[in-house]
Specification:
three-stranded antiparallel sheet; Rossmann fold; 241 residues; globular; binds 2-amino-2-deoxy-6-O-phosphono-alpha-D-glucopyranose
Length: 241
Amino acid sequence: MNILKFESQQKLNEAGAGILAGLVQTNPRVVLGLATGGTPVGIYEELVDTHRKGMVSFKSITTFNLDEYVGISTDHPESYHAYMNHHLFSHIDANPARIHIPDGNAADLKQECERYNALLDDAKQIDLQLLGLGHNGHIGFNEPDHALMSGTHVVKLKEETRSANARFFNHIDEVPTHALTMGVGTILKAKMILLVVRGADKAEIVHQALTGPITTECPASLLQTHPHVVVLLDSESGRLV
Ligand code: GLP
């Protein structure tokens, strides 16, 4: 693992956006796995800026988002569809036909997972998977458990995850109870993984995930088995590694 620590959020954002933009510049048809949450916002901002300056075009990329809530409409501001449009897609020239996000409103969620897995299979391999980290070690919405699913599946969110995400909603009761998420098998199949973590409140889980035992009770610890992981940390989240 290549662990990089940054003294400022701005430098971390520039580094993250630089890695993503560089990949797109060298391979315009790159397949990117994208993440949501508070962590990647600054990276997306930098990426949009790079695009606005005319340094990178996204018109031939393919994207797959990690996850989506079940049961909130795509135009709900906290849906991951709305998040991606707001922070990235509405500002760049990516082709909507090659943007993929699981549909948390599908009538048949199991079928939707199969559809998403088939799209991922068609794409062969994600070149770079961007990941944030949950306080409990989750990646995407793969919550700690005695066993983890390989492919896209429906997940019941842990109460700690709903509480952590309640800050984005008016009230915790509005936070969905379930989500669709890419599985860890798909995540680990990516050619390269870019894990980004910020904040003192994640220092302990960063330490566990990167240096502790490999266990499904800390899904991010499975990243230790991947041959090409780059980790971007701010100084607070990287305090123990
Ligand atoms: C969210 C997302 C994850 C994200 C994580 C951390 O619920 N499903 O993909 O990485 O939890 O979120 P944040 O970056 O807001 O701390």
